[in-house]
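hiii so um. not sure if this is the right channel but i have a protein structure encoded as tokens and i wanna go backwards to a sequence. like what aa goes where. can anyone help
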């Protein structure tokens, strides 16, 4: 799992992070943060837990769609 920040311009995400090159062609999950709202920094463990939960929900949704 890899995490970085960037901005969206049009339908392209721009990130100034050269380590992204090794992920070229991979699928990504994009979370858009609303600049007007304050947000808290969370630990890696919390982030992984949230990510795992979202992945599980998406897998369940795709299973339902496949029926």
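sure thing!! here u go:
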């Amino acid at each position: 799992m890899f995490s970085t920040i960037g901005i969206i311009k049009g339908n392209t995400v721009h990130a100034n992070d050269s380590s992204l090159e090794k992920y070229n062609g991979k699928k990504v999950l994009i979370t858009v943060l609303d600049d007007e709202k304050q947000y808290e920094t969370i630990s890696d463990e919390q982030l992984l837990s949230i990510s795992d939960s979202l992945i599980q929900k998406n897998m369940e949704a795709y299973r339902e769609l496949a029926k």
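oh and The chain has a mean pLDDT of 82.
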